[in-house]
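S1.2 Input.
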Amino acid sequence: MGLGSAWALSGQTVAVPYDTVTVDEINRRLGDFENTNSKREQELRSLFEEAGCSGEHLTEQAVKHSRNPNLICVLPGQTDSKIIVGGHFDFVDRGQGVVDNWSGCSLLPSLYQSLKASPRRHTLVFVAFTDEEKGMVGSAFYVHQLSKQEIRGIRAMVNLDSLGTNPTKVELDRGDKLLASALVTVASSMHLPLSAVNVHQVGRSDSDSFQDRHVPTLMIHSLTNETWPILHSRRDQMAAMHLRDYYDSYRLITEYLAYLDAALDIPGGASY
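S1.3 Output.
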């Protein structure tokens, strides 16, 4: 616990502290998936509360045309400038929906837990989106409710979708180049694998809802041509997960978010 790194940013050495959730906890939360979308949302609420996000910081956002809400956990920072971390909890029930996308949304409470112990410059908002599989309904609604001023206050949106089938991958076709460059920098420093695999042409995800409003975004995943067919099939279950790769993705994303919090200017531009 109490881990982190020091980075040279704008000529100064800046600490990017965070805690680390154990591999056993990460795997337990991954295994806590439920068999309906409603139960998944409730399980995520329990996991956020377990991680320390509760009360006024944990809210449900009713979504028009959806039976289930978005679930929002806020980690207040020193400013209103925001970094949003998202992942959808709904699934196509041909399989168990572990890869797509319990793997992404179940990391949100652990990322909150890792980052909450140290003061943050940005307000971090962790959002579990509903009904991505029906056309990004939850994320589109979330973005639609934001004013132009609120949109301008979002420094980055990091989307987690279908992790753990391989070492970490990043989508570059529509990803923000500065955000992608920062992820490469962090992965190299941590000696963790990272490669670019563009999946946008064969499927859209919740980051697109933010890109449509010109928010800088990055989608982190694990898919390749070989593992893409797992999605929306009976193969989407725990047996498809590579747990070591999954934990490496968690470690990389944790330090990446801590790095972004330290590196992104408030309110405009990036300093790395």
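S1.4 Remarks. The domain at 3-263 is CATH 3.40.630.10 (Aminopeptidase).
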